[in-house]
Amino acid sequence: MKLRWVVNNYKLFRKVSTPEDYASFVGMSGFMSFGVQPAGPYPQGPDNGWRYDFTRRPVHNKLLKRYGLDQIAGQGSTFERTMRVMNWLCAHTYYNGMSFWTGALPDNGLKILRHTYDKPFKRAINCRHKAIALADCLMAVGINALPVAILNLPNNHFITHVWLPEENRWVMCDPSFSSYISDPEGRALNLIEIALRFWQGEEILVAQYDFNGTQDCRETYLNAFILLSLREIEVYNGTGSKRSDPRNRLLPEGTTPPDEKLKAISATELLAEPITLKR
Fold first, then answer.
1. Residue 14 has what pLDDT?
2. Has this prediction a pTM greater than 0.85?
């Protein structure tokens, strides 16, 4: 059985005016995932030399100064600093996946935060803007990160991939739910590791979770927002001034690319070490 919306009605969208309204909607059976199937293994090669190209932009310096992000990130490992920035972001912004009217916001973390920071729920932002805001805030403190779309149309979700130089690998952070996914030992996972463990029937856990200040819908989050969407992975080249730069898409093995304009990449390239951002 495929995921279906119980109600697909604009009038319902207009009624979602509080965090409680949105949590209630997410908890409806229409947002539950039934029969979620593993996406299948992603191709691990070849490595054709494609790499993320991170460039420091003026927006990062402005974010650093305006919000005192160095103090928020503090000291410690890259992962510890990342968690502090993500938790801070989620404490000061609301998430509403039905905030389609924020589509006019630019792909700019500073302007996104100006729109939503410490504002009421009517200024809530969707997962795309949450992922962009977190990526820009992390890059402001010298941590390589970028928004990543996971797609299984008509379902989709945006998360942020973060590079941990101490471990030479990426991990997934979800600023919409102040969450990350781990193995039973507590090791944070990236998207490929999450998909592979699911494919192999190995345990994966929601290690941290905050849905607009509550634990609502935690039991459905992993399936409905992550695993259900892990059919295709789409990323940008890096932090160019235009996020409409050529996009790169990773599909499970044996899947035909749906759009020839998108460059196909392998899991090897998706997880490759980035060109280091210089502060």
1. 52
2. yes
**What is the extent of the structural domain holding 239?**
41-270
How far apart, in whole angstroms, are the C-alpha atoms of residue 114 and residue 101? 16
Residue 42 has φ and ψ, to the nearest 5°, of: -90, 145
Q: Which tops the pLDDT comparison, 237 or 197?
A: 197
Q: Judge whether 48 and 264 are in contact, CB under 8 Å.
A: no
| 26 assigned to some structural domain | no
Backbone angles phi, psi at 147, to 5 degrees: -70, 145
Q: What are phi and psi of 111, to 5 degrees?
A: -70, -30
Domain contains 253 = yes
CA distances from residue 101 to 105, 125, 129, 134, 199 in whole angstroms, order as listed: 9, 9, 12, 20, 36
How far is residue 239 CA from its own chain's centroid?
A: 15
> Which of helix, strand or coil describes residue 81?
helix
Q: Does some domain include residue 19? A: no
Report the domain count for the chain: 1
- Three-state DSSP class for residue 182: strand
Give the integer Cα–Cα distance in Å for 60 and 179. 23
Strands 205-208 and 169-173: what pairing? unpaired
**pLDDT digits over 100-129, tens only?**
665 678 889 999 999 999 999 999 999 999
